[in-house]
Design goal:
mainly alpha; disordered N terminus
Length: 210
């Protein structure tokens, strides 16, 4: 997909939001002058976004699943300490807890990602690309216009990921905490023991069964 790499890379960008908030990131360059817009141009942008909707939804799914994956990684060592006769049952229960979280969280972030795309990625394309360039991108992903489109990846991350994270954090954090507490309770641990590490720095692991 055309912007799959861009949108998935946005997930990595979310792990640096704390550093950005502390002023550790360099100041962004001055914004270039926006190109003229038009109804026809907006239609082209909308068409391109619709073509890339699966990639946008995939990015939302990945962002929503990441906390559950981190919790599963943390739980692994604790499960090894559980008696063998109880381990399989406990693992299935935790897997069910994670699956329930994913089923609830993914639609929230996925749908919000689709709603945010026009006002973030779409606006950026409208401002930085001409109608003809948009037509070329739609018609031929290997065109010179596509290479220019790729150069916008960093800015797409900057305008999209922080907004998606900010809008979904209040909705998702309670679910993440509830999942952490449920898993910790099953393991007989303090609620903080199974918490995912801050910043989302853990390496990805296989997606929980859904």
């Amino acid at each position: 997909m055309l912007i799959t790499r861009v949108l998935l890379a946005a997930l990595c960008a979310t792990s640096t939001l704390a550093a950005l908030a502390q002023g550790q990131a360099p100041a962004p360059p001055a914004a270039p002058v926006a190109l003229p817009s038009s109804p026809a141009k907006k239609e082209l942008v909308a068409k391109l976004l619709e073509l890339q909707r699966p990639a946008v939804e995939g990015m939302g799914r990945t962002m929503a699943e990441q906390p559950a994956l981190q919790i599963m990684q943390q739980v692994g060592p604790f499960l090894q300490r559980v008696p063998v006769e109880k381990r399989e049952v406990l693992a299935r229960e935790i897997e069910a807890d994670v699956r329930k979280y994913v089923e609830e969280a993914v639609p929230i972030v996925r749908d919000r990602a689709v709603k945010l795309a026009p006002s973030t990625v779409g606006t950026l394309m409208d401002e930085r690309m001409t109608e003809e360039e948009l037509r070329q991108v739609i018609a031929a992903l290997e065109s010179p216009a596509f290479r220019k489109f790729q150069t916008l990846s960093g800015e797409m991350q900057r305008v999209f990921a922080p907004k998606l994270l900010a809008e979904t954090r209040p909705l998702i954090e309670p679910k993440v905490k509830a999942l952490e507490q449920t898993v910790a309770r099953r393991l007989g641990l303090p609620a903080t023991a199974a918490s995912a590490p801050a910043g989302g720095g853990a390496s990805p692991s296989p997606t929980p069964k859904r």
